């Protein structure tokens, strides 16, 4: 389980190091289609940050996942638990599932900016980031990691010009850091993955434990 750094210190590092990705080469790729997002206003700025969710907005249970694209435990959760949750609870209208990014480092931030470049593709790109995490996150240099992330964005069908515009958006970068700080501080998030199930915080767990909690709430 990955522990979080103090958010104020991390924010400075992210803002200083987040915009470099634009200098990397680009390739083309195929398209995927995904669910949409609910939009929330970030306090103190005109930039809007989308709170990405799947499932019925009026579902009886809300699950919020806090996770980082560079967290191996988060990748494992998405490989071993998430697909079953989606099939049995999200797609059946029982759970509204919201995903909120946590930023440990600039690489997770870069991944977030790619995933958010086209909101309708967010969850598909997130799947790709986790599936290929061992490759792009361990590529070595900043340039190699950035190149791996850019290839994922292009493979998801984001056009070159759109990708460049998203990755060069410094105002959006600052808004995302502020949004992350506000969420993590309010919900007392200290590690990833963490979950809020109808407002109650839980740490990482397997599918059996997760489904048991959901089933108990559904039976209330």
Automatic annotation (TrEMBL):
Matches recorded under InterPro entries: Thioredoxin-like_fold, Thioredoxin-like_sf
Secretion signal, residue range per the UniProt entry: none
Span of domain Thioredoxin-like fold: 50-216
Superkingdom to which the source organism belongs: Bacteria
Protein name: Thioredoxin
């Amino acid at each position: 389980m990955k522990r979080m750094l103090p958010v104020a210190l991390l924010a400075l590092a992210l803002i200083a190091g987040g915009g470099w990705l634009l200098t990397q080469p680009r390739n083309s790729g195929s398209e995927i289609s995904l669910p949409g997002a609910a939009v929330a206003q970030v306090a103190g700025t005109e930039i809007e940050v989308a709170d990405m969710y799947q499932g019925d907005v009026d579902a009886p249970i809300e699950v919020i996942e806090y996770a980082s694209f560079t967290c191996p435990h988060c990748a494992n959760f998405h490989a071993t638990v998430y697909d079953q949750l989606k099939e049995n609870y999200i797609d059946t209208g029982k759970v509204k599932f919201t995903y909120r990014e946590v930023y440990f480092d600039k690489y997770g931030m870069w991944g977030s900016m790619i995933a958010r470049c086209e909101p309708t593709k967010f969850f598909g790109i997130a799947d790709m980031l986790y599936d290929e995490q061992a490759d792009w996150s361990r590529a070595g240099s900043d340039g190699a990691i950035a190149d791996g992330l850019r290839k994922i964005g292009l493979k998801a069908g984001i056009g070159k010009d759109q990708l460049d515009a998203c990755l060069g958006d410094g105002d959006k970068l600052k808004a995302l850091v502020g949004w992350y700080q506000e969420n993590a501080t309010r919900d007392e998030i200290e590690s990833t993955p963490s979950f809020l199930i109808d407002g109650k915080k839980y740490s990482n767990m397997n599918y059996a434990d997760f489904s048991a909690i959901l089933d108990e709430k559904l039976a209330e």
